[in-house]
Design brief:
mainly alpha; about 0% strand; flat
């Protein structure tokens, strides 16, 4: 016989249906607000205000438009995940540890790779539009 999850631990586990979806959405909005407190995420979000509409102008088909827009959103997603890793590591303790450094370095590398992907996609689209 399985026991019900302890609501004191995480009340979200006991929710069902639309109530669960509603509360999950609220939690996600809280995550975006928390991300906004991070300078790197804030910079990427502000740049996306320009790049997302520009993707509709630059893309020549719905696929190109989606690729341009998704590459921008990907950077923000990876930045949020990197911030989550850093917060979890910092909660464990402020002392230096090789595994903590490794986790933070890998999160940072993931952000770098997402930026390179985004930059490459946008450079190729701009090249095709204006040079090719």
């Amino acid at each position: 016989m399985s026991a019900l999850p302890d609501p004191a631990v995480n009340p979200q586990k006991a929710r069902k249906g639309l109530e669960r979806v509603f509360h999950a959405t609220l939690i996600s909005v809280q995550g975006l607000r928390a991300g906004w407190s991070e300078p790197a995420f804030r910079q990427e979000a502000l740049i996306s205000i320009v790049l997302l509409p520009a993707s509709f102008w630059l893309g020549r088909s719905w696929v190109e438009t989606a690729l341009l827009a998704c590459s921008v959103v990907l950077v923000m997603i990876v930045e949020l995940l990197n911030t989550a890793v850093e917060a979890a590591i910092d909660r464990i303790g402020p002392e230096w540890h090789d595994l903590s450094k490794r986790a933070k370095d890998m999160g940072s590398a993931a952000v770098l790779l997402s930026l390179l992907i985004c930059g490459g996609i946008w450079a190729a689209a701009l090249w095709q539009r204006f040079v090719g």
